[in-house]
Write a structure and sequence with these properties.
This protein is an alpha+beta fold and 211 residues long. It is 47% helix and 9% strand. It starts with a strand and ends in a 19-residue tail after the last helix.
């Protein structure tokens, strides 16, 4: 049996983060497509794995663990694979700071604007404008914080980079021009140059698949 099973949907940014981590670490995994449109994420069988009824979910069959929330899963996989966890506890904590920061205005702004542009949701005009402003405000802050550094934490790539990348990578689908954020673009290029990197369009299968 393959050690890991990832439950998610190819259009989900949080699921992409986990798929990216698994791909970059060279970790085999089975993939179970969760059909959100049919309500599969609210079925009893899925709620038994994730009480919140959300994707992604990662099962570790070797350790009988079932985890939800992408940031938690990335943290877990950093320990289990020995990759992207930072060189010490201080770097791991800095990475967690970035993950929690990213879960705020950056996620709200980009993911919600993307959802509207793709027709998944509709928002009143004022709410849509607020979402877009949140995205650009967070991107401006990120651009400034990346000035003079290659990676978000320390001297190498960590789960912080994978987590934040998994949000910013959806800016084009939100019709947000990243050309205004040159430090962000250069940082994204470094992530995209990593061995085994896969884009948001290629990382996840569109139906269930074995490793």
């Amino acid at each position: 049996m393959t050690r890991y099973t990832l439950h998610g949907i190819f259009a989900s940014g949080p699921t992409y983060k986990v798929g990216l981590m698994l791909n970059l670490t060279g970790t085999p995994y089975d993939y179970v497509h969760v059909d959100l449109r049919s309500g599969a994420h609210k079925a009893d069988a899925f709620l038994a794995k994730n009480r919140y009824g959300q994707v992604p979910v990662l099962e570790d069959h070797e350790k009988d663990m079932c985890l939800c929330q992408s940031s938690v899963i990335l943290d877990y996989l950093a320990d289990e694979t020995g990759q992207f966890g930072g060189k010490d506890r201080a770097e791991r904590l800095r990475a967690r700071e970035w993950q929690l920061w990213g879960a705020g205005q950056l996620t709200t702004g980009i993911y919600r604007t993307r959802a509207m542009k793709l027709g998944f949701f509709t928002f009143p005009e004022q709410v849509a404008e607020a979402n877009l402003n949140a995205a650009n405000g967070a991107l401006k802050e990120l651009n400034g914080l990346l000035d003079g550094r290659d990676w978000l934490v320390g001297g190498g790539v960590t789960i912080a980079d994978l987590d934040i990348y998994g949000i910013v990578a959806y800016a084009p689908q939100a019709q947000i021009d990243l050309g205004a954020y040159p430090h962000v673009r250069r940082w994204m290029s470094r992530v995209e140059a990593l061995p085994r990197f896969k884009s948001v369009d290629a990382a996840l299968p569109k139906e269930s698949a074995k490793a």
